[in-house]
Amino acid sequence: MIGGPGATTLCASRRLISLLLLIGGMWSGLWHATVTGATVVGLIAAWHGWALLTASRERLASRFAVIIRYYIAAAFFLVVGATLAGFVTAAMFDADAPAWLAEARDRLTVAHALAGVAGWVGLTMGGTLVTLGPTAMRTRMDPRAVSFATSALPLWVAALLVAGTGAVAGSMRVTSVGLLVVVGAAALGVGVPLVRVALAKGPAEYGAWSLMLGAAWILVAGAAASLRAFEAADATGLRSAFLAWMPILGAAGLGQLFVGALTYLMPVVIGGGPSAVRVGVGVLEAGAPHPGGGSQRGRGPRARRRIPGRNLRRTPHHRRVGGPAGHLPRRHCPLGPRRRGPGARQARRLFIPHHARRPPWLT
What we know:
The chain is mostly helical and 363 residues long. The protein has 14 helices and no strands.
């Protein structure tokens, strides 16, 4: 967070208090508490966006400043979503709410979901994937990635505003067109550079595969939502029709993307040096299906050496006898690769349970 460790701690404490107030108010049906919590969340998001905007003109001004602009736009839509959440809560729990507010509850809910999912979450993840995607694939960004992202951001924001306005007004056709343009902007600004990089050097690890597939499922769910909105008569019909696609958006899309990001980032954040990172990656990917498929046995040493990061020159007896992990490279072994040094020992203590550590006679 901009402003140093003290500002970060203070902001985190405020966010936690406001979220507890918001969730507690929703569970208890106290709409005053819910509106207050949503207001505080919106104010914190506005302050965060302003801090990023200021820093993007000074300390964070660089070739990749477009990523900061994605985060600024995401903060804006979080403010919009928090504002709409206050109206929705009042319509749900306030017995004295105006009739027009109670009637607009479903329309406001759809607009709130658009601002939160396609705006706050979508823009944050889209901006992050511009750089995180190629990094997880351990290759360079596409030369035109920044240009694609820069061109797509205004279109994304404008189309989302149109979709939200259409939802509030009750025009599902306008919402459908706006959402379809949002999906197209996301595919152009984020998806096309990632596909170009993947075609040049495909994903070789579980984290990169999960990121790519999660982003693809999010685009599929967005296109389905656009189709359902075009077919729906009103906001209530859209909410009912899209329920079947929620697992696709949540588990296959957002969930898979978060798992992929954490699989790549956790060993790096924990640190300990290159050896420790290799140990962490090996443990986290021990149960992942390998893109090569099948076994590497019988392909010859030259074919094996072409696979990056593998060292099969010394294969111990417990790896040659077969078994479910007998064909895996050493860095995918559940017991961890044979690395020495303080960094590797630290990573084993952090990542590998005591009962799964390598026995002394195998070290």
